[in-house]
Amino acid sequence: MDFKDLLERTKELARSAAKEVEGKLRELKEKLDQDKDGRPDVLEKALKEAEKALEEAKAKLAQLDQDKDGLPDTLKGLSEAAKKAAETAKAKAEEAARLLQERLGKKEG
Q1: Do 28 and 20 touch, CB atoms closer than 8 A?
Q2: How many helices (H) and strands (E) does the chain have?
Q3: Does the pTM exceed 0.90?
Q4: Tens digit of pLDDT per residue, the chain (109 long)?
Q5: Could you give the CA distance from residue 31 to residue 45 in angstroms, rounded to a whole number?
Q6: Rounded to an integer, what distance in angstroms lies between the CA atom of residue 39 and that of residue 47?
Q7: Dist CA 14 CA 106 (whole Å)
Q8: Sequence spans of domains, the chain
Q9: 30: number of CA atoms within 13 Å, CB side?
């Protein structure tokens, strides 16, 4: 066998291998895309699940935010209660400071 025959045989083996790889690639694409829309089915499934999760999250947020102001109502209620508690604590501290000043002032006088 001369070099030219060896080269031709190598080319034929390379073509054959390329055709085999192309066939296997085609098979794999067909398995991954059963509905033949050009997108792998597993990717479509993941996107659908993500969209469903997003819709469920939006629905849950809507349930938590009945007045539609963008804040969950429970969180707003807790915030308002904390603000009132802080205001009450401040008022009591001011009253205690005033009473202490009065007592200290009476002792001095």
Answers
A1: no
A2: 3, 0
A3: no
A4: 788 899 999 999 999 999 999 999 989 988 889 898 988 999 999 999 999 999 999 898 888 888 888 888 888 888 899 999 999 999 999 999 999 998 888 655 4
A5: 14
A6: 11
A7: 108
A8: 1-103
A9: 6
